[in-house]
Design goal:
This protein is an alpha/beta fold. It is about 40% helix and about 15% strand. It is globular and about 45 Å long. Bound molecules: ligand 0WD. Ligand 0WD binds next to helix 1.
Length: about 260
């Protein structure tokens, strides 16, 4: 019989959540869920322009740490993890919810993608997660869980997703390799694949409203997902009860991906 009271959910866990741009961000759904289950949550913001949108959210979840993080700025990732080490000395959960591709490349064919555009999209959307795992490893002394956000367009050709498809495919593969490498230390690594949600980053995808309509009509649940649906599922994967689940690409899409 499982003693629910002994299920520590996320009580006392230390979490770092990156990629919150505003209260529509998927990362915000994760931060709220982690806090609701008892974790202490540190959050990052992209730059001074983003800070006024993120600061009130940090207050809402009593975030003890609020740090600037632009993964393109040399050393900022290391500084963020130094702050975590100094304040907490450890880390249990880390969410990477960061992606970017230059508009002219994102809105063009993959065939036409520029070298710089590809490298920048890979650096921000994929390499930064690999680096986050490297920096998390020494802090996750009693195990932990790392999460990144991916999309179905990595597996199937989704109109207008373009260069982000190959970038997310690389991210999902890196997730599996890192799950294999970090598993012996009790560190799990997952790629979370939400269905489409109306966020700032999504506004860069041409005809996104068409994608939303198709998702709603085709998914078995006949419903779009919310950032809270994603957050609660990620929080579950962060709990000790999920410690033997790792390396997954978990679809939180109302079942959309199972339909031809
Ligand atoms: O339908 C969607 N919205 C889906 C998004 C479906 C499936 C997956 N995703 C993924 C995205 O690819 C991304 O990896 O979820 C992740 C988060 O995206 P989001 O929550 O949809 O969008 P948004 O609220 O824009 O968060 C992305 C954030 C940036 O926000 P803006 O809007 O300012 O680009 O990523 C952050 C930033 O906060 N970000 C960076 N953070 C650090 N360094 C950088 C950077 N260089 N660039 C973007």
């Amino acid at each position: 019989m499982i003693d629910v009271a002994s299920l520590n959910l996320l009580k006392g866990k230390k979490a770092l959540v990156t990629g919150i741009a505003n209260d529509q961000s998927i990362a915000w759904g994760c931060a709220k869920a982690f806090r609701a289950f008892g974790a202490d949550v540190a959050i990052t913001y992209l730059n001074d322009r983003a800070k006024p949108y993120v600061e009130p959210l940090a207050k809402e979840i009593d975030a003890p740490i609020l740090i600037p993080l632009d993964v393109q700025q040399e050393g900022q990732l290391e500084q963020a993890f130094e702050k975590i080490k100094k304040e907490w000395g450890r880390l249990d959960l880390c969410v990477h919810s960061i992606a970017f591709a230059p508009k002219e490349d994102l809105q063009g064919r993959v065939v036409d993608c520029s070298k710089d555009g590809f490298l920048r999209a890979m650096e921000i959307s994929c390499w930064s997660f690999i680096r986050m795992a490297k920096l998390s490893e020494p802090l996750m002394k009693s195990g932990g869980a790392l999460f990144t956000m991916t999309y179905y367009g990595s597996q199937m050709v989704v109109e207008h997703y373009n260069i982000m498809g190959p970038v997310k495919a690389a991210l999902e593969s890196a997730t599996r390799y890192m799950a294999a490498e970090l598993g012996p230390k009790g560190i799990r690594v997952h790629a979370i694949s939400p269905g489409p949600l109306k966020t700032r980053a999504a506004s860069g995808i041409t005809e996104f409203d068409k994608l939303l309509k198709k998702a709603q009509s085709k998914a078995p649940s006949r419903s779009l997902v919310s950032i809270d649906d994603v957050g609660v599922a990620v929080a579950f994967l962060g709990m000790d009860g999920a410690k033997l689940i790792t390396g997954e690409t978990l679809y939180i899409d109302g079942g959309y991906h199972i339909i031809d």
